[in-house]
């Protein structure tokens, strides 16, 4: 892995800001922060698609999917929707470096740390002499300088993420552009379960616990109209549809056509007919006139923009600096870029309020560790005119079981 003394963040100002944010709950050093951010979570969290499967059916399918790895993990039932997996062994492995090397892109390397195999499109380089059937060491290209098809030993900055069995040849990767698994990982740096949710027939989704909590507190009910304003990659959208028992309407917006296609694929795999995705900029999703929009209008046939006040629930999982994503190798975000996110978030928040029907619920969430994007947005909202129609809900008044907030990698208690 990277040297212990090397910071995740290249900008000292950002590093200090994140460390200060983490210190709200106790003293955290920069070294501890770097170590924590570079490791994947020890608990892998799975959400059951209760519309399509029961928890017991999902656990049975999960055990079959894990096959030989099944006995290596404690599988815990947190509630009817949430399953966690944690290794029975030590979390960090000492993995021996091998002669043959495979270089992958950063996103592929991070996925490997969380339990994935290497898919062929993520491979950038195969070292000379390596061939299908070889045991190889897999490295992530930290500086994004390895050109696809590089034919020599790569000498740039790279980080070892584990070893595995090479399943493809150089020609297949770089000339035939094959897809599918390129390296089957059998000796990972971290003992995370290898779960390919696409092979489990829509019974579950891999999701981080905070993402699940956001939808639980949103509390969508059967028959509701729900707007997911920044929906990609779609995990929360699917959860909303599940809670609504495939009734009502879930409108999922995202600017990216490719991401909307991904949401459509997940929707079809999981068996939902109440999700209506649109490639659209959510900042422009409210009509600027006073057109009436009656509750009996078929929203499935009504593309955005929408008149004001039409949704019982609005989820704004806002675009953010993602400083809390784990694991991370390095992060080059600068303080100026960090300061640009709240402007977009405030614009989206105003739009979210306009979409909300009387008596509705709005959830704002991020995956970052930045006061300006989290508490700062709440402080800003408290000073706006629209607060005359909104009532903030303290954590102490959440309807969700707040004990879920205390689930950590140090415990895996069936109770």
Features:
disordered C terminus; 415 residues; six-stranded mixed sheet
Q: How does this structure look, described?
A:
The chain is built from 11 helices and 15 strands. The chain is α/β, with parallel strands linked by helices. The strands form 3 sheets. Strands 5-9-8-7-4-6 form a 6-stranded mixed β-sheet, covered by helices on one side. The protein has a 5-stranded parallel β-sheet with strand order 13-12-11-14-15, with helices on both faces. It has a 4-stranded antiparallel β-sheet with strand order 2-3-1-10, covered by helices on one side. The protein is globular, with a radius of gyration of 23 Å. Mean pLDDT is 92; it is low at 408-415.
Helix content: 25-40%
Strand content: 15-25%
Task: List the uncertain runs.
Answer: 408-415
What is the average of the pLDDT values? 92
* Rg: 23 Å
Structural class of the helix and strand makeup? alpha/beta
SS field, number of helical segments: 11
Form type: globular
Task: State the end-to-end distance.
Answer: 36 Å
The profile of the biggest β sheet is: 6 strands, mixed
- SSE order, one letter for each helix or strand: HHEHEEEHEEEEHEEHEHEHEEHHEH
Q: Would you report the number of β strands?
A: 15
Q: What is the spatial order of strands in the main beta sheet?
A: 5-9-8-7-4-6
